[in-house]
TrEMBL record:
InterPro entries: Leu-rich_rpt, LRR_dom_sf, RanGAP1/2. Coiled coil: none annotated. SMART domains: LRR_RI. Signal peptide: none annotated. This is WPP domain-containing protein. GO terms for molecular function: GTPase activator activity. It comes from the Eukaryota. Pfam families: LRR_6. The lineage of its organism: Eukaryota, Viridiplantae, Streptophyta, Embryophyta, Tracheophyta.
Amino acid sequence: MTISRSVIQENKTTKVGSEGGIALSEGLECCAYMKKLDLRDNMFGAEAGVSLSKSLSSYKHLTELYLSYLNLEDEVAIAVAKALKECASPIEVLEMAGNDITVEADSAIAACVAEKQDLNKLNLSKNELKQK
């Protein structure tokens, strides 16, 4: 079985929490041909987000990654940025809006953006990226 797309958001009443996010992340590790991963608007939090970042290295064809409104914060934003920077996926779209990301994560995100030459859409809106 080959899964090329995962859209949890299609069922608007489902909210995947931290425990479910960890299980989902582990299950998605075997989906090397995934092209689009849309996990927006769930309740992942840091632990599930770190688990997800570890699974990103297994994707070779991922072009779109939607991680908005997952309560990820800096630790996960940094882990995701580092994982994407190192993986072979030709990321074109990266969305991490509404995750309380601060300037602590900006250098990791910038390094990822610099490495991903195919990236043409980056959404970091609704975060705390302002200098204080």
